[in-house]
């Protein structure tokens, strides 16, 4: 990439998530009251509104629910063609992400994917996904 991705800085709500990424750990939030699992990090449960959220270590595996191949990038950090996908994690949350490390023509719905990490200039790592190889 010729220019860094435009990624929001870490803040009070996301600090623990980003700290875990520096160790290549993908974490989710689990509500202590209702058990709902969510991603991205928030200050409350989006299911019941409770603010007691536990950190849950994600498996890093999921499946592609939907995707598109982008041929005209909206920002110089993105080199087309590239894949934008909705990935349903094994733990439940659906994340908007990129599928990397493969030819875009290899990507299909329902494929199994696993997390991979992209280094960010400030030391954080961005979780992306790649096709699961057996
Ligand atoms: Zn809840």
Q: Would you summarize the structure shown here?
A:
This protein has one helix at 15-21, and strands at 27-31, 37-38, 53-57, 61-70, 82-89, 94-99, 112-119, 125-131. With 134 residues, it is mostly beta strands.
The pLDDT mean sits at: 95
The strands making up the biggest β-sheet line up spatially as 6-5-4-7-8
Number of E-type strands: 8
Distance between the termini: 28 Å
- Class derived from helix and strand content: mainly beta
Fraction of residues in β-strands: 35-45%
**Helix-strand topology string:** HEEEEEEEE
Give a quick account of the main beta sheet: strands, pairing sense, barrel closure: 5 strands, antiparallel
Could you tell me which ligands this complex binds, including any ions or cofactors?
Answer: zinc ion
Shape: globular
pLDDT below 50 for ≥5 consecutive residues: which ranges? none
Rg, please?
A: 15 Å
Structure description:
The protein is mainly beta. The chain has 1 helix and 8 strands. It has a 5-stranded antiparallel β-sheet with strand order 6-5-4-7-8, with no helix packed on it. A hairpin with a 5-residue loop joins strand 7 and strand 8 (125-131). The longest helix has 7 residues, at 15-21. The chain is globular and about 45 Å long. The chain starts with 14 loop residues before the first helix and ends with a strand. The model has no long low-confidence stretch (mean pLDDT 95). The protein binds zinc ion.
């Amino acid at each position: 990439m010729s220019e860094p991705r435009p990624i929001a800085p870490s803040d009070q709500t996301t600090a623990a998530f980003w700290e875990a990424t520096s160790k290549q750990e993908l974490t989710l939030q689990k509500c202590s009251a209702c058990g709902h699992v969510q991603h991205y990090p928030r200050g409350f449960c989006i299911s019941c509104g409770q603010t007691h959220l536990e950190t849950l270590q994600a498996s890093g595996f999921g499946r592609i629910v939907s995707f598109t191949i982008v041929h005209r990038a909206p920002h110089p950090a993105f080199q087309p063609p590239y894949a934008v996908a909705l990935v349903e994690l094994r733990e439940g949350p659906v994340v908007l992400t990129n599928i990397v490390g493969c030819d875009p023509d290899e990507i299909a719905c329902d494929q199994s994917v696993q997390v991979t990490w992209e280094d960010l200039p400030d030391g954080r790592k961005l979780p992306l996904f790649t096709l699961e190889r057996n």
